[in-house]
């Protein structure tokens, strides 16, 4: 992995609770709150100054812009929710561009695993734990489950396998 183990270790404790909340919130309400997206951005803006060299820190804002533009286009085409697009854009600066292939493979595996797990839970007794969750009855998949999981897994893997 191209992400440094140090930067992954510095980011992970701040980002992990947000990733868990994004997954929970998207399953419960089928939405990712804007405040979480803003907090994720602020975490990068503040902690990134410590975790990254300054030139890399500045370049990572370009990741945010590129992913936001792509997310807006995907949202306009109906392929992605607005909250998902905003969360992906706020998460983009945490990703080292050299890990993009790994990230796409991790995201694909995460989508498949999360989709299967969600559908199994939807049709099992686990549904009785949270019967009011909107994702049980909505035909759309709560992508926050995969997006949050992917960012958390990427940073966790970066702690162990980062350079």
UniProtKB/TrEMBL annotation:
It comes from the Bacteria. Residues 15-116 form the Prepilin type IV endopeptidase peptidase domain. The chain crosses the membrane at residues 6-24, 36-54, 60-82, 102-121, 141-161. Keywords: Membrane, Transmembrane, Transmembrane helix. This is Prepilin type IV endopeptidase peptidase domain-containing protein. It comes from Marivita lacus.
């Amino acid at each position: 992995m191209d992400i440094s183990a140090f930067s992954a270790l510095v980011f992970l404790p701040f980002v992990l609770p947000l990733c868990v909340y994004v997954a929970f919130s998207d399953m419960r309400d089928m939405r990712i709150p804007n405040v979480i997206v803003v907090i994720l951005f602020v975490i990068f803006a503040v902690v990134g100054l410590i975790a990254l060299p300054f030139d890399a820190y500045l370049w990572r804002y370009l990741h945010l812009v590129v992913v936001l533009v792509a997310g807006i286009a995907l949202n306009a085409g109906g392929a992605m929710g607005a909250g998902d697009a905003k969360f992906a854009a706020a998460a983009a600066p945490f990703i080292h561009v050299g890990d993009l292939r790994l990230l796409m493979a991790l995201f694909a595996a995460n989508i498949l695993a999360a989709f299967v797990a969600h559908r199994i839970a939807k049709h099992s007794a686990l549904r009785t734990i949270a019967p009011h969750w909107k994702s049980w009855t909505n035909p759309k998949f709560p992508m926050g489950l995969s997006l949050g999981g992917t960012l958390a897994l990427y940073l966790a893997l970066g702690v162990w396998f980062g350079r």
